[in-house]
Write a structure and sequence with these properties.
- The chain is of the alpha/beta class.
- It folds into 2 domains: 251 residues, Type I PLP-dependent aspartate aminotransferase-like (Major domain) (Aspartate Aminotransferase, domain 2), CATH 3.40.640.10; 113 residues, Aspartate Aminotransferase, domain 1 (Alpha-Beta Complex), CATH 3.90.1150.10.
- The chain has 12 helices and 11 strands.
- The strands form 2 sheets. It has a 7-stranded mixed β-sheet with strand order 1-7-6-5-4-2-3, sandwiched between helices.
- The mean pLDDT is 96.
C-alpha cells in the first residue's frame, strides 16, 4: 500500500509505461540533431509533450516551457538565472530545500534574503506582503506544502507583486497536476515543477515556465542543434536553456501522463485524493497518542488543501514507525523532515519530523482504512 505520492507518484498510468517503452524501442534517436525520420519523429514527440503541458497550465507560448531534470533544477535555473548580488528576495519559512539551499548559496554571493516567519506552520498574508520592499527583485514561495498540505494564496501574492513590478517564482512541486493551474490567473512569472509527482510522469523530468519578456541567465551552455555555426549560446527559447540532449524518453512518457491527466481531469484526481486525506485524518484523530499537523481537510475549501497528512505518534520516533508500517503492514510512507527543515522548525516538529501519508489517484478507501488500523495497532489501541 503505497502512500508516498508526495515524493513520487506510484503506480503510473499504463499509458506512461507504454509511451516510454515505445519511444525507447522505436524513436531512440536524438531529437533536433538530425534530419532523418527517427530524429524528426523524436523531436515531434518532444514538441507535442511541451504543447500538452503548456495547455494544462494555460501557458500562451509552449516554447517558454523549459525541460529540466526535475523540479529542483527548474528552481535553481529560476533563482540563479534572475538574482544577482545586491538583489533582495522574499520567501517563507516553510520552503523545501530546493528553494532554501539555492537561496543560502546566493546569500553567500551577496543576495539579500528575507525569510518571513510562519509560527505553527501558518502563513500570514499581510505579514508576508509587508516584507516586500521597493527594492525587492523576487518573491519565491511554494504553492502547496509537502509537509502539511496547506495551499498558499499565490494569486493574491501575484496580484500584489504585479502592481509593484516584483517577480514571482512559485514552486509547484505539490500542486502541478493536483490543482488546476493557470499561470496567467495566478500572475506567476516563473513556475517550477517536477514531472514525477502530481503530473504522473517518470523521474528525471521537470519543467520551468518562464513568463513573457523575462530574461534569465542559463545554468549551462552547449550544443542545442540550432545555430551550430556560432560558439555563442542561442538566445531563442527553449534552446537557450536546453543545452545537451534532453531526457527525450522521459519527456515522451511525461507527455502521455499529461494526456492522461487531461482525460481523467485534474479536479477529479484532486477530489479523490482529498477524500482519502479526510478519511485518514478522521481515522487517525481517533487514535490515542496521535498528533496531526496542518489544516484538517474538512475545515478548508478544497482549493486550499492537497492530500498530504502529517502526524506523530506518542512513543514512536517517526522513522521507527514508518519502518514498522512497511515491514509489518506493507504500508509505504515517509518519515522525517521531508527535505523541509524550515517547515518543521515552524511546526515545532524539528528535528525528528513527522510521519507523512500522501495518497494518490490509485489509492483506495480500503487502503486508507488499513493504514488507520495499522497505526491503531502501533498505538496499542
Amino acid at each position: 500500500m503505497y502512500f508516498d505520492n508526495a515524493a513520487t507518484t506510484y503506480p503510473k498510468p499504463e499509458a506512461v509505461y507504454v509511451a516510454q517503452d515505445h519511444f525507447f524501442r522505436t524513436l531512440g534517436a536524438n531529437p533536433g540533431r538530425s534530419g532523418h525520420r527517427m530524429a524528426v519523429e523524436a523531436d515531434r514527440t518532444i514538441l507535442q509533450a511541451r504543447r500538452r503541458l503548456a495547455r494544462l497550465l494555460n501557458a500562451p507560448r509552449p516554447e517558454r516551457l523549459i525541460w529540466t531534470a526535475n523540479g529542483t533544477e527548474a528552481l535553481n535555473l529560476a533563482l540563479k538565472g534572475v538574482l544577482t548580488p545586491g538583489d533582495h528576495v522574499v520567501t517563507t519559512a516553510l520552503e523545501h530545500n530546493a528553494v532554501a539551499r539555492p537561496l543560502r548559496a546566493l546569500e553567500r554571493r551577496g543576495v539579500r534574503v528575507t525569510r518571513v516567519p510562519c509560527p505553527g506552520g501558518r502563513f500570514d498574508l499581510p505579514s508576508f506582503l509587508s516584507a516586500i520592499q521597493p527594492n525587492t527583485r523576487l518573491v519565491a514561495m511554494h504553492h502547496a506544502s509537502n509537509v502539511t498540505g496547506a495551499v498558499l494564496p499565490v494569486a493574491e501574492v501575484g496580484a500584489y507583486c504585479r502592481e509593484r513590478g516584483v517577480l514571482l517564482l512559485v514552486d509547484a512541486a505539490q500542486s502541478a497536476g493536483v490543482l488546476p493551474l493557470d499561470v496567467r490567473e495566478l500572475g506567476v512569472d516563473l513556475l517550477a515543477m517536477p514531472g514525477h509527482k502530481g503530473l504522473y510522469g517518470p523521474p528525471g523530468t521537470g519543467a520551468l515556465y518562464i513568463g513573457e519578456a523575462l530574461e534569465l541567465a542559463p545554468l549551462r551552455e552547449g550544443g542545442t542543434g540550432s545555430l551550430s555555426e556560432t560558439d555563442e549560446q542561442p538566445t531563442g527559447l527553449p534552446d537557450r536553456f536546453e543545452s545537451g540532449t534532453v531526457n527525450s524518453i522521459g519527456i515522451a512518457a511525461l507527455g502521455a501522463a499529461v494526456e492522461w491527466l487531461e482525460a481523467t481531469g485534474v479536479e477529479t484526481i484532486h477530489r479523490h485524493e482529498l477524500q482519502l486525506a479526510a478519511q485518514l485524518w478522521a481515522g487517525l484523530a481517533s487514535v490515542p497518542g496521535v498528533a496531526l499537523h496542518g489544516p484538517p481537510p474538512e475545515s478548508v475549501p478544497s482549493g486550499e488543501r492537497v492530500g498530504v497528512v502529517s502526524f506523530n505518534l506518542e512513543g514512536w520516533e517517526p522513522t521507527d514507525a514508518a519502518v514498522t508500517l512497511d515491514q509489518s503492514f506493507d504500508i509505504q510512507c515517509r518519515p522525517g523532515l521531508h527535505c523541509a527543515p524550515w517547515a518543521h522548525q515552524s511546526l515545532g516538529t524539528f528535528p525528528a519530523g513527522t510521519i507523512r501519508l500522501s495518497p494518490g489517484y490509485f489509492n483506495t478507501p480500503a487502503e486508507a482504512e488499513a493504514v488507520v488500523d495499522a497505526v491503531r495497532q502501533l498505538a496499542g489501541a
